[in-house]
Specification:
It is a single chain. The strands form two sheets. Strands 1-4 form a two-stranded antiparallel ribbon. The two termini are 21 Å apart. Helices cover 67% and strands 5% of the residues. With 201 residues, the chain is mainly α. The chain has one domain.
Length: 201
């Protein structure tokens, strides 16, 4: 909710609602394609732990999980990189770093199950290449909706990364609690980085 609030406060309400709607529908579509085809993440499916599934494939809560990640990543990246040609892939790479924290915890909690487990806490490498591609497409979409000039990034308020910081803090704590050492260490580094960027804005 914090990211939603600060986005609506920053943008005209109608424009903010469009952004949030796009990034509510986008993950449902991408995840449904991924579950149905195995692309771009690799073969996986959601367990029944998350409740009702849209189209029988994707839990409804996924609609609310992705927007804070992409908006927060853009807010952090755009504060440091003005050239959109560099900022967009950097934002996608930052999303991959966050997923290195989130995915192992989700596997431990049996939120989703991989058809063929991989080397990183049971997660295949294809998941992270898929996250980069998904993150890049999402970053481009966000840039197109917000841009003033095509080659320059838009400086989102760092407050729009508040939900991202809360999410990473929670899952980092969970990783420490469940002895997921590498995700916990990455999470700690990411938390320090987020606090530094938000605090220095």
């Amino acid at each position: 909710m914090p990211s939603y609030y600060f986005l609506v406060k920053w943008l005209p309400a109608s424009r903010a609602i469009i952004v949030l709607l796009v990034f509510s529908v986008f993950p449902i579509v991408i995840e449904a394609i991924g579950i149905s085809t195995g692309l771009p993440y690799g073969g996986f499916h959601y367990s029944d732990e998350m409740g009702f599934k849209i189209l029988g494939l994707v839990p409804w809560s996924v609609s609310f999980a992705f927007a804070p990640l992409i908006i927060g990543s853009a807010a952090i990246t755009n504060r440091q990189i003005e050239d959109a040609r560099l900022a967009l892939p950097a934002s996608a790479l930052l999303l991959v770093m966050f997923d290195l924290i989130l995915d192992p915890a989700a596997v431990v909690l049996n939120i989703w199950v991989w058809d063929v487990p991989g080397p990183y806490y049971g997660i295949p490498i294809s998941n992270y290449t898929g996250w980069f591609l998904t993150g890049l497409v999402a970053a481009v979409l966000l840039h197109l909706m917000l841009m003033e000039t095509p080659m320059r990034t838009v400086r989102l308020p760092t407050e729009t990364a508040a939900s991202l910081l809360l999410i990473i803090s929670f899952w980092t704590g969970f990783s420490f609690w469940t002895s997921l050492i590498v995700p916990a260490a990455i999470g700690l580094v990411m938390m320090v980085y987020l606090v530094y960027v938000i605090g220095s804005a």
